[in-house]
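Q: My labmate handed me this sequence with no annotations at all. I'd like to see what the chain might look like in three dimensions before we decide whether it's worth expressing. Could you predict it?
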Amino acid sequence: MKKIGFLSFGHWNPSPQSQARTASDVLLQSIDLAVAAEELGVDGAYFRVHHFARQLASPFPLLAAAGARTSRIELGTGVIDMRYENPLYMAEDAGAADLIAGGRLQLGISRGSPEQVVEGYKHFGHDPGEGGDHAEMARDHTRRFLRAIDGDRFAEPNPRPMFPNPPGLLGIEPQSPGLRERIWWGAGTRQTAVWTAEQGMHLMSSTLLTEDTGVPFHQLQAEQIQMYRDAWTAAGHQREPRVSVSRSIFPIVNGTDRAYFGVAGGGGDQVGHIDGGVARFGKTYAGEPDQLVEELAADEAIAAADTLLLTVPNQLGVDYNAHLLDSLVRYVAPELGWR
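A: Here is what I predict for the chain of 339 residues:
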């Protein structure tokens, strides 16, 4: 394990028990947590994207603001639902945010998770058409986005432009060098991981897989990672692939931790249904540091990945989540090979 980051879903709730009661709270606290994580030596700050929900939804203003407040930490998403995206406008936003951050964006994109509303992408102006496949629409948006950030020139210039144009066709601006090599795909199955490798994207694997073979979650995920790495080699890419896995991990080092998460650990995987299919969900890890080190060392997917993303309970506030991250990097991560 080379890198550790946090992944925030960015929930807000007006409940008095929540430290994030408004959208403003969540956005400003997300920036503050990225700053705190950088000060603790954490490697990455990642944010989930959900539409039509009281959660983070528009990542690029947040990534740009966090980029302006930090200098080292990677800033990413996990994941942007490409069914909702205008790929060219997204390319402009991503290029600008990456330049503000000094080339530190690590963008996780995907087909997306089950929606809050029925066919919500249609409200954003994206319709696969009658009989069309919304997953394929997401992949088509992705292909166009990747070409745009890779510098594709495709637009015929106006013969009488407002400003002088360079010779030839025009492409999306601004361009941020290297951004194309920092795109990840959130893969929910083994076969999607193979496709991800073929496209030259890094692999982002979550706390669930939308398939189940009966083996423990971490073993199924490790198999997914190995298939991805094999496909990457077969595709002949010349750069190193990266793989992240997400986990819910809560080191218990004081009474507050015990009050919040003292009964959260000790369980196993869960099997459920998503989008009409069987899915396997990974377990929650909660316990004292020595116990966590032993349990996490047996997690084959963590061993196979280079990046571990800790899902954080953002409604508990910046100070408490910074404490969780500090406990992880102080007492647990070094025993698993980090740094």
